[in-house]
Write a structure and sequence with these properties.
Helix content is 67%, strand content 0%. The chain has 272 residues and is mostly helical.
Length: 272
């Protein structure tokens, strides 16, 4: 089977940039479990969203620029724009309705066909566009961009992109979409949980408690506030992947082959 074209191939610089933004992202999301109870970082907890938001925006921009240097040509940019606009338009459809968010299944299939590099850029850009569309711009937006970038990139890292087809591939994508939907929700819970304050003292972050105690509080927070929403997102992703996945995978692969992203653009000399 002919290997499928990839709009962006991860080179050394792109891999290094992704590793850098990933490391910063781990700190940005997981600092409540990384900082000891005696750390002075907890005293500035309310400033963290704005500090991390500004830093993450810059890092996402650096990653996007680095990936562009890896071969994101005009045709790949056009596909990126179409898919990002489609994903942004899909997000408001299920807003506020039990976690029904169709954009997640589109991100899974797009990342699968177009690769992890394209997937990271697509996930981040789609979340940025959807935030502008829905008015969801705030200190949480960079966290959403990074989490969605990881979500879409992960689909591009799944095994067998050039060989696995049919029911086996759909089963793999469905399983990934189900688990990754919960992972996305958990990451976003981490972004907001430390700043609950006294709204829910029994499950809120306690800067003076040990890591195991805060971990138990976080699990209770997830179960109490977002389990139903994450389950709805996961089930919706699986259902759409199984029903619409075959047609969309064929369409994406056909478009990728016809676009020939990796073919260099040449110009014929003018006739004399």
């Amino acid at each position: 089977m002919t290997p499928q074209a990839r709009p962006i191939r991860l080179g050394p610089r792109s891999t290094t940039a992704l590793a850098l933004v990933g490391a910063v992202g781990v700190v940005a999301f997981g600092w409540p479990f990384l900082a000891p109870p005696t750390s002075r970082l907890s005293a500035h907890a309310q400033d963290a969203p704005w500090l991390f938001a500004g830093l993450l925006v810059l890092l996402v921009a650096v990653v996007a620029a680095t990936l562009s240097e890896s071969g994101l040509g005009a045709k790949a940019v056009a596909m990126l724009g179409v898919l990002a606009a489609t994903g942004a338009a899909l997000r408001p459809i299920g807003a506020g309705t039990a976690g029904i968010e169709p954009m997640f299944f589109l991100m899974v299939l797009s990342g699968r066909v177009l690769g992890p590099g394209f997937g990271f850029v697509l996930g981040s850009v789609t979340m940025f566009a959807s935030a502008l569309l829905t008015g969801g711009v705030g200190p949480w937006m960079p966290f959403q961009m990074l989490a969605m970038g990881w979500f879409t990139m992960g689909a591009g890292l799944l095994p067998g992109p050039d060989r696995l087809r049919g029911r086996g591939e759909l089963a793999l994508l469905s399983l990934y979409g189900f688990l990754a939907a919960f992972a996305y929700g958990t990451a976003m819970n981490l972004a907001g949980w430390p700043f609950m304050g006294a709204l829910a003292s029994g499950i809120a972050f306690d800067p003076h408690a040990a890591v195991p105690a805060n971990l138990a509080r976080f699990v209770a927070y997830c179960l109490a506030t977002s389990l139903g929403w994450d389950l709805g997102r996961a089930v919706c992703t699986v259902v759409l992947t199984l029903t619409l996945g075959p047609a969309l995978l064929r369409a994406l692969r056909r478009a990728t082959r016809r676009a020939a992203f990796e073919t260099a653009v040449t110009f014929d000399p003018p006739a004399r």
